[in-house]
Amino acid sequence: MKPPKIAKDKVPQHVALVMDGNGRWAKKRGLPRTKGHEKGESALFDVVEGAIQIGVKELSAFAFSTENWRRSPDEVKFLMGFNRDVIRRRRDEMHRMGVRVRWVGRPQKLWKSVIEELEIAEEMTAKNKVLTLNMCVNYGGRAEIADAAQKLAQDIQRKKLKPEQINEKVFAKYLDAPQMRDVDLFLRSSGEQRTSNFLLWQSAYAEMVFMDVLWPDVTRQTLWKAIEIYADRDRRFGKA
Ligand code: FPP
C-alpha cells in the first residue's frame, strides 16, 4: 500500500494520537472492553508503519492517562499488564524499523514492571532516527505542567534561576519530554471531539482532526486520510 502523494512541507512532523473507542468497539460485538484494547494494538502499529511511509517524524500515543486510574480495578490492571506486554513484545520490531521509543509520563503509581520495559525499549532504540514513538503512559497534560512548575520553583529556591528569566522556552525545558516537537496534527478516533488533557502545552497550535472510526478499526489509511485533511488546512500561527 502506497501513501497519498503530499508535498513534503505539508506532511505533519509530529502527530498526537488519542486512541479512543476501544470499549465501544468491544461493546458493539458483545465482548469485554479488554478485547477492544487488544485489537487496538495492531491498529497502533499499523499507524506507526504508515507514519514512516508518509514521512512523519514523531508520533505520540496516549496509552494510559493520569485519569485512567479511575477506571475499574480490573481494567486498570489489564491496561497496566497490557502496556508492559506490548512494549516487551514490540520493541525488537520497532528497533528493526528504526523507531526510537520514548516513555512520557509520571512515575508515581505506575507499575515498576511497566517502567522497566519502557526503559529497556528506550535504551535499545536510543540511537534510532527514522521516527520517534512517544509512549505516553501515566501521562496527563495538566500533571505535566504542574510538575514542571514544581521543578522550576525548586530551581528558583536553589537560586539556579531568577523569576525574571522564566519564559516559554525556559518553561518548556521542565516538561516531561523537553525535546518533543510541537504537535502539528492532533488526531482523535471514535468521533469524540475533546483533547482529554493530552499534550496541552505542545498542542497550542496543532490542527485538530477527529475521525469517525473506533480505534480498533483504525489503519494506516485513517492516518493518511487525516494527513490529507491536515495538508488542506491553512496554518497561520496567529499571523493574518
Ligand atoms: C480508549 O478507549 C483507550 C485507552 C484507555 C487507551 C488504551 C489504548 C490502547 C490499549 C490501544 C493500544 C495501546 C497500546 C499500548 C498498544 P476507551 O476504553 O476509552 O473506549 P470507549 O471510549 O469506547 O470506552
Report on this model:
This protein has 240 residues and is of the alpha/beta class. 42% of the residues lie in helices and 15% in strands. The chain has 7 helices and 6 strands. Strands 3-4-2-1-5-6 form a 6-stranded parallel sheet, with helices on both faces. The structure holds farnesyl diphosphate. Farnesyl diphosphate binds next to α1, α2 and α3.
List the main descriptive attributes of the protein structure presented here.
6-stranded parallel sheet, 7 helices, binds farnesyl diphosphate, 240 residues, single chain
A few lines on this structure:
The chain contains seven helices and six strands, in the order βααβαβαβααββα. With 240 residues, it is α/β, with parallel strands linked by helices. Residues 19-24, 33, 37, 40-41, 44, 63, 68, 83, 86 line the site of farnesyl diphosphate.
Rg is 18 Å
Task: State the low-pLDDT regions, or none.
Answer: none
Helix-strand category: alpha/beta
Number of strands: 6
Q: Report helical residue fraction.
A: 40-55%
Label the overall shape: globular
Number of separate helices: 7
